[in-house]
UniProtKB/TrEMBL annotation:
Residues 1-20 form the signal peptide. Pfam families: TPR_16 (PF13432), TPR_8 (PF13181). Keywords: Signal, TPR repeat. It comes from the Bacteria. InterPro entries: TPR-like_helical_dom_sf (IPR011990), TPR_rpt (IPR019734). It comes from Flavobacterium aurantiibacter. The keyword Transcription does not apply. TPR repeats lie at residues 524-556. This is Tetratricopeptide repeat protein. SMART domains: TPR (SM00028).
């Protein structure tokens, strides 16, 4: 009997050891972002030993990572019915409450999880802290309250230190987050995510070489650790944005590293979604189209796939498919619409509104389907209102219409672009807004002038001057804009002022700049127009300006004729 009892105890120990090993392997798969693999391992472990509550929490958390809330809830609810450690699953239900903005419900569930915890138990506190950090509605201060309590009980535990690092980083306490990650890595050198996060922090401070070295070291220790490839991809993407001469080279490396990362994942729909988001960032729209098509075979109803199909169709020149896909996306109940969605739909509509007719003389004629163009502009404006950073995307698109001499349409695009003063193209966009509004009026008869548009142009050039006072052409075009406004003494005074400022700025740049033929012509324009204004009130002053003209061009007819009239 004793032998049988010992044999039974041995089998139980073996089973417990195998279960613990399976859970640890599942955790490693989660760390490597192989979520489908982790779920299979956890489900197998639970089937073999269905009374262990922590396994249900870990499985439910994987569902939450994948945004599959209903499966997570079902898993947690089963977990609270089991024999061993069921209380951990109240933590999972608490995170669901946080995700659904039910903070009181979350607190009630967290308190249930702590009811049976002993003084030396730190895991419940750690998991509650992680729930506050990982929720789609995070509360990093609350997370730190629980994690600091866990730290008091287990001050050197690497998982507690890692969780502290995540909460501190979320709370924008970068220095302490770095210390926490370093402590976790020093305590457990096999904890690769702690080392990964040290590199992430260096990437965030634009220490790209140092970040790359950290990720390379991780891969030297474990060549199959996928997240290091993803971080290398994201490092090269940001590096490319900060090193324009190497943008193409680094962007290509970013895409290559992300493909390597994908090969290390399970190619689940979730990992493909993340891949698609990265392809949008790196502007690899051919790759995005292929990925979106592959995703559609896996899931024909997920609305995000329509987003990717719409983006890639537009960038690959198929505006009809883009409009169809994005309209379908907008019609889905679960679609979470962002500013970029409106931007791409608007770009597709405005692009479609452009009609090109080949001429008999070999020159194309360009016209606009006005109602479709206006609908597109409304969508673009909505996109920028939702996400002002989208203003950065409009520069080249507006230039396309400007180059076709569709100035009114170009101005409509640039007017939206200039609504964000923090846009990296703010100065350039204001310049072209002013240009477009000026040229759309320059050849009109006096009674046909669009005065509000000219006022906008004046403001646009004023913005350029405020940002860059030595931009000489801003002064001359501001003067020209005001010259088009009839019967307005204030506009006339503004014209004179800006012609004078133009002369002053160019002269300050030296004789070589003044001697340029283009500037000589503009000096003549400025002096003539100022002279004509003074001719109404001060003939002596007017004559001085016309003489300046004749010093540059003795045959200038405007100056010669006006001087005759002044005598």
């Amino acid at each position: 009997m004793n032998k049988m009892r010992l044999f039974s105890i041995g089998l139980i120990a073996l089973a417990s050891g195998a279960f613990a090993q399976d859970i640890e392997q599942a955790k490693k798969a989660i760390e490597a972002e192989q979520f489908e693999k982790a779920k299979k391992m956890l489900k197998a472990a639970i089937a073999a030993k269905p009374d262990q509550g922590k396994a249900y929490l870990i499985l439910g958390n994987v569902y939450l990572m994948q945004k599959i809330q209903d499966s997570a809830v079902a898993t947690f609810k089963t977990g609270i019915t089991v024999k061993t450690n069921p209380n951990f699953n109240y933590i999972g239900l608490g995170q669901v409450d946080l995700d659904n903005s039910n903070t009181s419900g979350a607190l009630a569930n967290f308190n249930k999880a702590l009811e049976v915890a002993r003084k030396k138990d730190y895991e419940e506190l750690m998991y509650i802290g992680k729930a506050y950090t990982n929720s789609t509605n995070p509360d990093y201060k609350k997370a730190l309250e629980y994690l600091n309590k866990a730290k008091e009980i287990a001050p050197t535990n690497p998982q507690v230190q890692l969780a502290l690092g995540d909460a501190l980083l979320g709370d924008k306490n970068v220095n302490e987050a770095f210390s926490a990650y370093r402590n976790a890595a020093d305590t457990d050198p096999t904890l690769l995510r702690a080392k990964l996060q040290l590199g992430v922090l260096k990437k965030g401070s634009r220490a790209f070489n140092e970040a790359k070295a950290d990720f390379d070291n991780i891969l030297a220790a474990n060549p199959n650790y996928g997240p290091a490839f993803r971080e290398l991809a994201e490092t090269y993407y940001v590096w490319a944005l900060n090193d324009k001469p190497k943008y193409a080279e680094y962007n290509k490396k970013a895409i290559e590293y992300y493909e390597k990362y994908m090969s290390m994942t399970d190619y689940s729909l979730d990992s493909r979604m993340r891949h698609a988001d990265f392809l949008v960032l790196t502007k690899d729209y051919k790759g995005l189209e292929a990925e979106a098509s592959a995703m559609q075979k896996l899931d024909k109803v997920n609305p995000r796939i329509l987003r990717y199909l719409g983006y890639s169709a537009y960038q690959n020149g198929n505006v009809d498919a883009a409009i169809t896909a994005l309209n379908d996306f907008f019609s889905k109940d679960k679609a979470k619409i962002i500013g970029r969605d409106y931007l791409f739909l608007g770009l597709a509509k405005t692009q479609k509104s452009l009609k090109t007719t080949p001429g008999a003389d070999g020159k194309d004629t360009h016209t606009i389907e006005e109602s479709l163009f206006n609908a597109g502009i409304a969508d673009i404006r909505k996109g920028v209102e939702m996400d002002p950073a989208m203003a950065n995307e409009l520069n080249d698109f507006g230039k396309k219409f400007f180059d076709l001499k569709l100035y009114k349409e170009a101005a409509a695009i640039y007017e939206i672009a200039t609504t964000n003063p923090k846009s990296r193209n703010f100065l350039y966009d204001n310049f072209y807004l002013g240009y477009a509004l000026y040229f759309s009026n320059a050849n009109k008869e006096e009674g046909q002038m669009d005065i509000p548009a000219l006022k906008k142009a004046d403001t646009a050039f004023a913005n350029v001057i405020a940002e860059s006072p030595n931009t000489q052409d801003a002064y001359i075009y501001k003067a020209r804009v005001n010259s088009l406004i009839p019967n307005d003494p204030a506009a006339e005074a503004e014209m004179v002022k800006n012609y004078e400022e133009y002369v002053k700025v160019v002269t300050a740049k030296g004789a070589a700049e003044v001697a340029k033929e283009s500037n000589k012509k503009k000096f003549i324009e400025a002096y003539n127009n100022i002279g004509i204004v003074y001719a109404k009130t001060d003939k002596v002053k007017a004559k001085e300006y016309f003489e300046k003209v004749l010093a540059l061009d003795p045959a200038d007819e405007t100056a010669l004729n006006t001087i005759k009239l002044l005598k």
